[in-house]
Every structure is written in C-alpha cells, then in structure tokens.
UniProtKB/TrEMBL annotation:
SUPFAM superfamilies: Class II aaRS and biotin synthetases, Nucleic acid-binding proteins. HAMAP family: Asn_tRNA_synth. This is Asparagine--tRNA ligase. The keyword Aminoacyl-tRNA synthetase applies. It is an enzyme of class 6 (ligase).
C-alpha cells in the first residue's frame, strides 16, 4: 500500500511503501536506523540484516544524506518515536544517491544557511515552522469564511501609496509610474462597500532599509475590512481572530511545536479578550520605566513596544495614537482631534506589533481636508475619495503581518525563518 508518513497511523501492522528522502542514518552492527522524511513528516526505518536480502542491506548502507528512495516496511507503534510510529524495513529501491550534501548535522553560520535556503527548508526545524505557518493560513481562511467574510484580491501594482509614505518600490507601468503594493487596504475599503465584510491575503512590499529581526522587504498580509463597523467592534474581531489561530496551532501542530522547542504554556494563555491601554497611558508607563527618550507625540520603537508587552502575558492593544504619527485615513477620537481611533496589537515575549488597525474616516469633508494636509492631489487617489461621496458608512479594518505572527507563535529569534524564501535588505537569493 502506498502511503505518506502522516498516513502510517492508519496501517499499523500492515506493510506500506513510502517515497522518501534520507535525513540521517546511524548503524549498530547488524541494524541500520534510517531517519526518513517525505514532506508530511519524519519516521525511522529500521533495517535488520537478518530479515532483509543482502541487496536491500547493501542498498541501505549506500544511502547518503538526502538520497531519495522508495522504502517498504511494516508499520509498528512506538511511543518513543517522535511520530509515534516506526517502520520495520522489508525492501527499498534507490532513486538517487546524493553526494556532498552541503548542510551537514554540524553547526553552520546563518549566512551559509540563508545561501542554501532552498535546501535548509528540508531540516526538521524549518519544516515544522513552515507547517505551523500553513496552519495559521488555513485557520485564517476558516475564521473569516465562517464569520461571513468574502475574500477579495487587491492589486499588487498600484498607482499610489496606501499610507502616503515614500517607502515604495517604484516601477514603470508602460509609460506611467507604478509601485509594488505596501498594503491592499484602500482597495479592501472599496470591496467592503460592495460586500460588507471582506478580507485579503497577499504579498506586500516595503522599501524600508531596515535590518532588524522584525522586518522583511517582502511579506504577507491578512487585511480584513468591515462596513458598518466601529473601533470597538474592530478590536473584538482582532482578538477573536488571534485567539482562534493560536488555538488551531495548539490543536493541530503539537508535534511541530515540540520539534522547535516552543513553550506551549505561553500560547495556552492566549484567549480573548485582550488587555488595552491608551497611548497616553503607555507614555506614562514608559516614563515610569525610565524611558526618558520618549515624548508624547513620538512613535514607539522596538524597545518601547517590548517594555509595554512584557507587562502582560498576552497580546495587548495600544489604542488612540497621535494623529500625526498615523496614516491619513484614520478617524479622530470624537472630541479629540489630536488622537485617532486606532490600535496596534503588541505580541508578548518581545515580538512587537503584529496587527495595526483603525476606524476609517467616513466623513467626506474631513477626508478632503486630509487630502490637502497630506498633499494627496494625485488623480490616482480620486477613487478613494469617492467612497465617502457615494453611500459612506462607518467602517473599520486591520492588517496582520503573517511572518510576524509566525515568528511570535513559533518563538523564533528572527523573522527570516518565518518565510520560505525571505527577502531582506541585502538578500534576494535564492
């Protein structure tokens, strides 16, 4: 019976054939232990010299790291094995013997591993991280589909900036200027006016010359947008969504979390509702903690976000930031023009902002004033203004950076491991 490693639990006592690669091998006299992987998991194949043909024994001896093969054997339960099962080998067929595989079990430097990212993905740790990433993506689709959202795909090539910034990748669109999208949000607002509740999931690009452990040049964003939704409703969706994806990872990725050594007791605490503090309260707190470099009106840096987040065991919302440090489209707090109805969700354990969201300006006259203040006179912004002209309603939304969420949930030291092929300031290979 042909099977994958993830399916062997259904064939205990029976014989299966698996297409696999050799991850590692050790031998002890008349026994060879083959650590096998097939993309769905890892399993140990045990080759007993007295129970297989001489050809099978010699073929097993010839296998090198990352050699490919078809292997047959009897599935037996073994609670000591990481997968809970083991394979008593009865036969194998070599597809290719790999020579001089560059990533050996010894220690390698980060740059070496990044240069060989196309091969590094095969390691048990990287494999587990990207399986967790996949589970987060699946949970995202499940959460929004189950809650009445429609997926809409915004364009990647745009004629303007979503946030009025200059950190954009410029290109030519025939005889016009164009940019790689830094956010699909403006387009999602248009979609929300048609469908009510929408979400997108796609790549975003920031030409920000940053080398911190939290930044990528190319990353993936989940961006929901909701019509007839105020700031408070928006926060509830965010905390329920984050709680859901964490719960799904805990439920479906126990072996992967174990493989990367993640302390799951910290994740088990992640349940809505999340604590909230205002920007004003955050400034006061930081002053008390000895951060004399921060003044009201300043945006927070990584040390400030970490200090705030360390005060809590779960993600914390920081709300009502100063108008001047946030995007032009955010709605002011009623009766207070100097702050806006927004929130950043800071992850615990020093991972910083994973979500940014706000209630959007729905008043046409106020948005016109914002256009003047931010010098948004380019015709490419005309359509966005028209959303306030034809049937405007209160609406809100947010964006979650997938890689930052993966880094936090997995407990990674650097965001580069959260992406299959990360794009960093000085890296576009492989």
């Amino acid at each position: 019976m042909n099977a994958t490693i993830s399916e062997v639990k259904n064939y205990v006592g029976g014989e299966v054939t698996i297409g696999a690669w050799l991850a590692n091998k050790r031998s002890s006299g008349k026994i060879q232990f083959l650590e096998l992987r097939d993309g769905t998991g890892f399993i140990q194949g045990v080759v007993l010299k007295n129970e297989v043909s001489e050809q099978v024994w010699e073929d097993a001896k010839s296998l090198t790291q990352e050699s490919s093969l078809y292997i047959s054997g009897t599935v037996r339960e073994d609670k000591r094995a990481p997968s809970g099962f083991e394979l008593t080998v009865t036969g194998l067929s070599v597809i290719q013997i790999a020579h001089d595989y560059p990533i050996t079990p010894k220690e390698h430097g980060v740059e070496f591993l990044m240069d060989h990212r196309h091969l590094w993905l095969r390691s048990s740790r990287q494999h587990a991280i990207l399986r967790i990433r996949n589970q987060i993506i699946k949970a995202t689709y499940d959460f929004f589909n189950d809650n009445g959202f429609i997926k809409v795909d915004p364009p990647i090539l745009t004629g303007s900036s979503a946030e009025g910034t200059t950190d954009l990748f410029h290109t030519k669109y025939f005889d016009r200027d164009a940019y790689l999208s830094q956010s699909g949000q403006l387009y999602m607002e248009a979609a929300a006016m048609a469908f009510g509740k929408v979400f997108s999931f796609g790549p975003a690009f920031r030409a920000e010359k940053s080398k911190t452990r939290r930044h990528l040049i190319e990353f993936w964003m989940i961006e929901p947008e909701m019509a007839f939704c105020d700031h408070e409703m928006n926060l509830r969706v965010q905390e329920n969504y984050v709680s859901y994806i964490v719960a799904q990872v805990l439920k479906n990725c126990a072996n992967d979390l174990k493989a990367i050594g993640r302390d799951t007791t910290k994740l088990e605490k992640i349940k809505a509702p999340f604590p909230r503090i205002t920007y004003d309260q955050a400034i006061e707190f930081l002053k008390e903690q000895g951060f004399d470099d921060i003044e009201w009106g300043d945006d927070f840096g990584s040390p400030h976000e970490t200090a705030i987040a360390e005060h809590f065991d779960v993600p914390v919302f920081v709300t009502e930031y100063p108008t001047k440090v946030k995007a032009f489209y955010m709605k002011p707090v009623p009766g207070r023009e100097d702050v806006v109805l927004c929130a950043d969700l800071l992850a615990p354990e020093g991972y910083g902002e994973i979500i940014g969201g706000s209630q959007r300006i729905d008043d046409l006259d106020l948005m016109k004033k914002r256009y003047e203040q931010f010098n948004l006179n380019d015709p490419s912004y005309k359509w966005y203004l028209e959303l306030r002209q034809y049937g405007t309603v209160p609406h809100s939304g947010f964006g979650l950076g997938l890689e930052r969420a993966v880094a936090w949930i997995c407990g990674l030291e650097h965001i580069r491991e959260a992406s299959p092929f990360p794009r960093l300031l000085n890296r576009i290979y492989p």
